[in-house]
Amino acid sequence: MKNNFIKRRSFLKQSGLLSAGMLAAPHAAFGDSSSPEKKENPGAQLEKKLDAKWIRSLYDRGTATTYLKSRNELTYIGMPVGGIQTGMVYLGGDGRLWLWDVFNKNQTGVVYKNVPWHEKIQFNFDYVRPFDGANYVEPVKDVRPLEQGFAIRLEYEGKKVIKRLQQEDWEEIAFEATYPMATIRYTDPALPVTVLLKAYSPFIPLDEDDSGLPGTILSFSIENKSNTPVKASITGWLENKSCLYTAIDQQYFRVNKALVKDGLSAVLEYTDSYNWADEPFKSAHDYGNFCLASLNENTRVNTAAQLEFADALFTEDHREQTKTENGKPSIASVGNDLTLNSGETKTLHYVIAWYYPNLTFESLKKEGGRYYANRFKSSVEVAGYIHQHFEKLSAQTNLWCDTWYRESTLPYWFLERTFLNISTLATTTCHRFQSGRFYAWEGVGSCPGTCNHVWQYAHAMARIFPALERDTRERVDLGIAFHDDGHIGFRGEYDEQPSIDGQAGRILGIYREHQMSTDDAFLKRNWTHTKQAIQFVLKQDTNGDGMIDTQLENTLDAKWPGEIAWIVGLGLACVKAGQRMAGEMNDPAFASQCKTFVDTGKANLEKLLFNGEYFIHRPDATKGKTVIGSYDTCHIDQVYGQSWAHQVGLGRVIDQQKTLSALRALWKYNFTTDVGPYLKEHHGGRPYALPGEGGMIMNTNPKRDPLPYGVKDAWQVTYFHECMSGFEHQVAAHMMAEGMTEEALILTRTIHDRYHAAKRNPFNEVECSDHYARAMASYGTFITACGFEYHGPQRYIKFAPRLNKENFKAPFTAAAGWGTYAQQKSGKQQEHRLDVKYGTLTLQKIGIEKMDGAKVKFVTVRHGADTLKATVAQQGAELSIVLEKPVTLSAGESLLITT
């Protein structure tokens, strides 16, 4: 395995993938005892030696990341391209759909496999499982339980050419990785046409229902580049593999049924049984059907397509139904013919839909099957709904993609990496039951119960689909998982004990979900239980010093004793959120209690847990270091409470200079552009970053403590030597908020490069299994890059961009609408503009920054042709603008502020 690492690193350097020129010179070995500087200074940092030109490029707008066949970059691409919480279908790099995890198996990992490993990892395994990063080490590819694809036939100048739209048939294929809509271009200089595919499932922020359709839209645009007319035909096919796992003997047969109605031409694919008494198979996890549909006029429908003969795909077939015995291929197709004049482009739209409603978790049967079964009774109904509402669904999805990617001034790569992890919602990590309840694993099939100490890191869903998060706080955290003493069971029904970091994160989440509401009804309904949950946190400080010291479960799967900086800080943040909520709920006595706790805890945290450079874990006075903990090490989450505070506009909970010192220590001791030298000396961690790849190590030991974690034999010690992207994103978001913009970009880009398509699936950030929820912390880095704050009930919004301030534009989402914010500076004058693209936005207070710090006496605020009365207050560079009356912006309307 060691030789394989050497070969792998050599390949990465040659291919330019090792951070795209990030390494300008070899690194001093991190933790290498032969390093001369380490003998003089045991805590010496790993020198980064980052290339200045590469760093400058991180700020460039650039273009969409495009992966090419010619560079062998398409093999591992698997972009989730179904609706959220509808199963998992991958879009491959060449445009074919694969994986097809829609049958409710709930297996662990995208594919369950064990990968041999060169050393023992957790629990002394000498192989890597999906929990350990098997699909990071050996990425999944080409899992095709059923045949699916498209082909194009061209007739021109007396020639006839048939090309399948897949890798083998085209000179070049280019994949633009812009979730939720990918663009794939097929080109061949020998052909008169180019083909462009846009593949997506409807994705509309704030609309979780129409973003949760079990179907994929494939829109093909064909352009005639030649000087003569071209006849073209497109045909798509889909194999009937309904009831894939249970319909496996001769009593079953598969049926393809043609349906043409109201402009929709489709084939319904289902399974039936010769045994009239075999009703139980209808309750099997894989019982259901597929639909292949054309949304175009004059469609050919073939219920018995033959892939062996290419021409047969493009012939007429008038059979309304075919029945195929089990074991024989059962393939249907739809297709269309068109003529393209010189320079002409025409577009054809197709839908592949599925309907497998029997989602079952033994302990959650009362929640019902899949949520989409409330709306549809078959995959044909799904395709029919998409057809009926196609203009709206496609226009709003395109509008979001334009708003997020094309209109922003932020770098494309940054927009991609901070957003694409929300595709986890469209994988089998996440489910939505017929009851409406959201439920999730930590990663695909791994660790049940919507674990709160993991999911509290994930900021994306709360900003894009806030109703789902509000319902989860109310239905689960303050409902099903809530206990009389105020503690929240950290895995719902699965594990009812409290997790102290998860509890604090869920309280902060309640405050965020309140902010992402139009009014205070959510908080009012839930204030009694919310207050009890906060009181539970307060009780975990047993000596009244404002620092949590009770030994409870945490996200590193152990119960650490003592006073732990990251737990203490997270507790302070959640109690400060409690103070804010108590104020809004007119509970001044509790608000005062919370304030006293925060003030006391902040002072003691900074006095007792700051070692002059970074924050530490003070051992329990009785137990000492006999139990696992982070102690004097430099821990990745040490100032996580302040990071969370920035996400919800809480201000300081930890002194700014000490916070910056801690973040700089993480940069100094934990970040490396090559984890290889560190891993050479520190064993047992799971391989989420391999030699030759960069990352931020979870814990490092600058003081060279011979027993840094208190014990040697606890399996959880292996966590400390890993690079887990969710934690890294959390740090990047915090660095961005504190003005460490360059470090935040480098760290985010390092993760982005680890997931380059030449190495593995860019859309699958792996931790404890695939598509790990914590990676949705990446959205937090976008939030802090915009300096975004929002409080819907208070009609307040704020922007304070951290980069490209003088010409900045980025999307925003609010409680009932979304759009773009832009600011420009010309001389001493600044313009700030809010444009609503969808829904509505009601405002009365707006926060912006005066870029040159000059004093501002008045501002002009215009809503369309109307000038609004407003006052302005200034504190440093921050301007607070208060409108005399609230203003509501609807889609297509804007607010312009001039200073």
TrEMBL record:
Q: Which Pfam families does the record match to this protein?
A: DUF608, Glyco_hydr_116N
**Keyword Signal listed:** yes
Task: Give all residue intervals belonging to the Glycosyl-hydrolase family 116 N-terminal domain.
Answer: 78-392
Keyword set includes Signal? yes
Q: Which UniProt keywords apply?
A: Signal
- One biological process term in Gene Ontology: carbohydrate metabolic process
Domain (Glycosyl-hydrolase family 116 catalytic region): give its ranges: 501-779
Q: Which GO terms describe its molecular function?
A: beta-glucosidase activity
As recorded in UniProt, coiled-coil segments are: none
Signal peptide annotation:
1-24
Which InterPro entries does this chain map to? 6-hairpin_glycosidase_sf, 6hp_glycosidase-like_sf, GH116_catalytic, GH116_N, Non-lysos_glucosylceramidase, TAT_signal
Which PROSITE patterns is this protein grouped with? TAT
Q: What is this protein called?
A: Uncharacterized protein, contains GBA2_N and DUF608 domains
What is the species of this protein? Answer: Chryseolinea serpens
